TrEMBL record:
The keyword Membrane applies. It comes from Alsobacter soli. This is DUF4386 domain-containing protein. The lineage of its organism: Bacteria, Pseudomonadati, Pseudomonadota, Alphaproteobacteria, Hyphomicrobiales. Keywords: Membrane, Transmembrane, Transmembrane helix. It comes from the Bacteria. The chain crosses the membrane at residues 7-29, 49-68, 80-110, 130-151, 158-174.
Length: 222
């Protein structure tokens, strides 16, 4: 599979899988202020299923980063490339740690008295802050740098860069107070990936037409 198409498919896999995982988790887990932890027992199966999706999404996202860097090649700016790669890797790492902390809560919730103690509140706060504060801030930095690379190199439509700047600002400012901002980053990655696929398909049609052999000349009549 050629590089732009591989990046697009990896981005689509990441976006779809992480959107499903976030939707399940937000439906199951209450906001932090009123969280009693009942979800860790009553909705343990759904939460565990969502947590199992996160490593799949993380691997797809790392593939998305790698293929995009290969696509940029010598056009990649070292400053932007360093922040682009670093923020993406940090996002995945923080998301994995938050998922592990949430999984530990589900496991420990089977012990009597755990949900009423300080240990649950500590673990819950850790998982919440790792996701909504640190991981999502890194996601906003990734959106800013990726959008800047789009503007500088034009490897896809520049309107996706404008969208990335706007959504990245919303994530940066409101990820801790508005849980629905979790969906903005994967939706942007999905938009960029679909745009790359569309451009590949659109550009392939003229090339395919140019490669078609011309019709042979008609034989002269006897």
């Amino acid at each position: 599979m050629k590089t732009p198409r591989a990046a697009a498919f990896a981005g689509i896999v990441f976006a779809v899988v992480i959107l499903v995982a976030f939707a399940i988790l937000l439906q199951a887990i209450q906001p932090r202020a009123g969280d009693t932890g009942a979800w860790a027992r009553d909705k343990a199966s759904a939460v565990n299923f969502a947590l199992q999706l996160i490593p799949v999404a993380g691997v797809a996202f790392l593939w998305f980063i790698g293929v995009l860097r290969d696509r940029l090649g010598p056009d990649e700016d070292k400053l932007f490339a360093t922040v682009f790669l670093g923020s993406g890797v940090l996002f995945v790492g923080l998301l994995f740690v938050a998922a592990a902390a949430t999984s530990a809560i589900v496991f420990a919730a089977q012990e009597p008295g755990f949900l009423a103690g300080a240990t649950f509140r500590l673990a819950r706060s850790l998982a919440f802050d790792l996701t909504s504060v640190y991981a999502m801030k890194m996601a906003s930095v990734f959106m800013f740098t990726a959008s800047s690379l789009i503007v500088r190199t034009g490897f896809t439509s520049r309107w996706t860069a404008a969208l990335g700047y706007g959504l990245g600002l919303l994530v940066l400012l409101f990820s801790q107070s508005a849980p629905l901002t979790l969906f903005l980053f994967p939706l942007w990655v999905l938009t960029v990936s679909l745009t790359i696929l569309w451009e590949q398909w659109r550009d392939a049609e003229p090339r395919a037409a140019a490669r078609e052999p011309a019709s042979p000349p008609l034989a002269p009549e006897a």
